[in-house]
TrEMBL record:
PANTHER family: S5 DRBM DOMAIN-CONTAINING PROTEIN (PTHR48432). One of its GO terms (molecular function) is rRNA binding. The keyword RNA-binding applies. GO terms for cellular component: cytoplasm; ribonucleoprotein complex; ribosome. This is S5 DRBM domain-containing protein.
Length: 187
């Protein structure tokens, strides 16, 4: 490889980095966020190593709305910012029973990860792992129990948890799905 080719390669990488470091415009919505996972990858080329980061972020407003996103960049801060912006595009609404828990127990699976959720009595708090507890707290749940079985990879855990929370049915929705004469709700 000639010196001219090396300079061109390095010049391209420098231009890409300077483009990515530009500040992004401010956000309209202010959701709190938690960084779930940050991965560093290192690719070796003829001109040297190229480092990149992947961030996985969860955001929520403590009132039943939460989302998750993944961002990649050559800098950790920029990757987290991209992940936060993507999480705002992937928001989910969850119904909260009595402003603290879910309506019924729920289980869900994503890949090799199984997540089980149970409603809890008032004052129990969040009995959950760090990842699941952060998401439930950001979504606005106060009393709930959970168990993660199988793979505990943070990405799979987040996706399985969101799938389980989206599958929780409210008493208002159930009569439309099932015949009303089969059961009655008492809340």
């Amino acid at each position: 490889m000639s010196n001219k080719q090396r300079e061109q390669l390095l010049g391209r990488a420098a231009n890409q980095r300077s483009r990515q470091q530009e500040p992004l415009p401010p956000m309209k919505w202010q959701f709190d966020m938690r960084v779930v996972d940050v991965n560093r990858t290192f690719r070796v080329t003829k001109a040297g190593g190229i480092q990149s980061f992947t961030a996985f972020v969860v955001c929520g407003n403590y009132e039943g709305i939460a989302g998750y996103g993944k961002g990649k960049a050559s800098d950790v801060g920029y990757a987290v910012d991209k992940a936060y912006r993507r999480s705002l595009r992937n928001l989910h609404f969850f119904d909260i029973y009595m402003n603290r828990t879910i309506y019924h127990s729920q289980r869900s699976k994503f890949g090799a990860t199984h997540v089980k959720l149970w409603p809890a009595d008032k004052g129990v708090g969040l009995v959950a792992s760090d990842v699941v507890g952060d998401i439930l707290f950001l979504a606005g749940f106060k009393d709930m129990k959970s168990k993660v079985i199988g793979s505990r990879h943070p990405h799979s855990t987040v996706k399985a948890l969101f799938k389980a929370l989206c599958e929780v049915e409210t008493p208002e929705v159930l009569p439309a799905i099932r015949p009303q004469g089969l059961f009655s709700w008492s809340l």
